[in-house]
Amino acid sequence: MAAVEATKIAEKEMKAGGTPSYTDLREWLEIVESFGQLKKVDGVDWNLEMGTLSELIAQGSSGPVPAVLYDNIKDYPEGFRVLFAQNASFKRMALALGLPLDYTDLDLVRATREKISQHNPIPHRVVENGPVMENVLKGEDINLLKFPVPFVHELDGGRYIGTGCLVVTKDPDEGWVNFGTYRGMVQDEKSMNVYISPGKHGRIQRDKWFDRGEKCPVIVCVGQDPVLFMVSGNEVDYGVSEYDYAGGLKGGPIDVIHGEVTGLPFPAHAEIVIEGFMDPEERVTEGPFGEWTGYYASNSRPEPLIRVQRIYHRNDPILTAARPGRPPSDYSIAKCMVKAALIWDQVEKAGVPDVKGVWCHEAGGGRLLNIISIKQRYPGHARQAGFVASQVHAGAYLGRYVIVVDDDIDPTKTFDVLWALATRSDPVDSIDILRRCWSGPLDPRIQPGKKGFNSRAIIDATRPFEWMKDFPPVAESTPELKKKVFDKWRHVIEG
Question: Which pLDDT tens digit goes with each residue over 242-259?
Answer without folding.
Answer: 999 999 999 999 999 999
